[in-house]
Amino acid sequence: MFLQQLVNGVTLGSTYSLIAIGFTLVLGLLNMLNIAHGDIFMFGAFLGLSLAMLGIPLYLALILAMLGAGILAIIIERLCFRPLRKAHFLMPLLSTIAFGILLQNVATQIWGSEPSRYPQTTEVTQFQLGPVLVSSIDILIVAISIFLMLGIDQFVRRTRFGRAMRATSEKAQTASLLGVDINRVIIFTFFTSGAMAGVAGVLTALVYLQITPFIGIRQGLIGMVAMVIGGVGNLRGAMIGGLMIGIIEVMNDAYFTASYRDIILFGLFLIFIVFKPEGLFGKKER
Amino acid sequence: MSVYTQGVVALMGINILMALSVYAIIMTDQVSLGNAGFMAIGAYTSAYLTVKMGMPIFPALIIGALTSSFIGFLIGIPLLRLEGLYFVMGTFGFGEVARTFFMNFEPTGGAYGFRGPVGATLPMIYGWVLALILFFWLLSHSRLGRSLDALRDDHEVARTIGLNVTVLKLGLFWLGSFVAGIAGGLYAHYMFYIESGNFHILVSAMAILYVILGGMYTFWGSVLGAVIFSILPEALRFMEDWRLSLYGAVLVLMMIFRPSGIISRQIVRNIEDWIGGIFRKASV
Prior knowledge:
Chain A is mainly α and about 290 residues long. Chain A has helices at about 1-30, 35-55, 60-80, 90-110, 135-160, 160-170, 170-175, 180-210, 215-230, 235-255, 260-275, and strands spanning about 115, 125-130, 130-135, 210. Helix content of chain B is about 75%, strand content about 0%.
């Protein structure tokens, strides 16, 4: 029973990690919050849905949804961040809230506000591993998430462009003086952030099988919680934070009352932000 | 006035109060994304008092607001150590805890919501709006108001000229949560029914948007922002289904083209001089 819940928690948590990574990439780079991040997640899920409806195979739908969500994130950068780069940090925050309202309502117009059902395209097989039942979808989700997370982590740490990203997040002005094309770094970061949210959207929809234009709100907030717990701007922290949240959520539902889930998560968030704002793995600074 | 227009006007008044509650906190250069939480506390407390205890509406509103401001005071002590984005996230966390608390709190209906509070009228709502406008006007012309301007422009300078920055921040946070509590109480007694979904993070976010887009350096900006952006969704009704999408788009465009808001302090000063001029002429 416990092991089974742990598996479910890891599956759920890895989608949260993907969202949290996108949050932390943008926040680490610009020190600004993209509240519409959850709505990019929603948009990715619907894009995947529409493509799957057209009979496109899952892996292709996944890649296209990723691209679409990444491009959406670039549009958000263009409209909500670039014109306000020198403004008070509050301005992009509010602008992205407004953009989120826009996205939710556009999605309602396109896909309707009733929950949309994902077609059962992939054959689900269940594997019995000792006491634990693992479905092929669980494996798919965890495998894709781990692959993407390791990919980003290594990219940021080892490549030349990754170094430019780290330099920009350290001090944008200095990086620019040293010849880093800041705008390219920012656009690339937004694209990656959006693509991660898009993948998470499709993967989550595969598990829950139905989505609404408003699922992004909670998922985005949970991603933010995971980011803060892991330490703002810390990629590996965001991954672990997401997994922790997923496991806590599933364990709470299994052994406690499901309706207290969000009180516990947001309460934990509040405790962290007040007493340990640098998170579990962050730098000691505010 | 038709019932529909009355509803729009009443909500506009409540939005003005919510904007002023954000403005009170913004005066100390802190931005709260949790005011819907204070609104919820004020709404549920006062509604419980009138429906279950049979209390008249006025004292119930006050007790509701005192409860929400007391909680604001308590959580303000740790939260106000945070600055900038971290304070925003902290208050957001509080707002979500408050909302999910009421979603599960059985004595006030839990997920089914709470039915029954009645008695808020348009004159009552606008009585509060006028009283608070008068209060903020007096505040902005008082010594305390000048101190707050100094604090907002530069914390360090404010400290060196002997202002107690911590006390000012906490006091204004208390005031903000009090005003939000009043707004919540009036909302509950106007709508006859409340549920936790009424106090969603978007409510907090919209209140900040009114303040910013109206002009964050004078309380008139908050009032004007709340008025304009409460009417706008109604004015966009001809767009039918695309109305809220367009509303979002207008907000995004406003942020791009006029991030400093509609009214500045200078405009208010000019208008005040102009009105003052009329009175001087009249007396001569």
